[in-house]
Design brief:
single chain; mainly alpha; elongated
């Protein structure tokens, strides 16, 4: 069971890494609209990973309570931890690209708002 959980989590992490790499490539190509297409998939994968992490922890506790040395799962858990760390680094790379773009758009909106006296859209009655 533990091996199945770590394998499934690893598969989801790889899918997440692929989606994030696609996000990075689309940002570089100024295809920002494509980012939204993948958001639901990324959220779904993250929810599954969180649920599986909880299942993994529960299974490890059960094995410990059964008197089984959980170190037999050490390689699988270490591999999963390495993959999750790589995902975290890749996500940080995406954030380092997205946040400046977000700030740039915010600055543009702020500048337009200031120039128009506080309203971007004029309403005429």
């Amino acid at each position: 069971m533990i091996k199945n959980i770590t394998d499934e989590m690893g598969s989801l992490v790889l899918k997440m890494k692929d989606l994030i790499n696609s996000d990075i490539e689309d940002i570089k190509a100024a295809k920002h609209e494509k980012l939204l297409d993948r958001n639901d998939d990324k959220q779904n994968y993250m929810n599954q990973i969180i649920e599986l992490r909880q299942n993994l922890n529960e299974e490890l506790v059960k094995k410990m309570q059964e008197g089984i040395d959980i170190n037999i799962y050490r390689d699988d858990v270490d591999t999963l931890e390495k993959e999750l760390t790589e995902l975290h680094v890749l996500n940080a790379k995406l954030a380092s690209i997205v946040l400046p773009i977000q700030q740039m758009y915010k600055d543009i909106v702020d500048e337009l708002t200031t120039e128009s006296g506080g309203n971007i859209v004029e309403i005429k009655i």
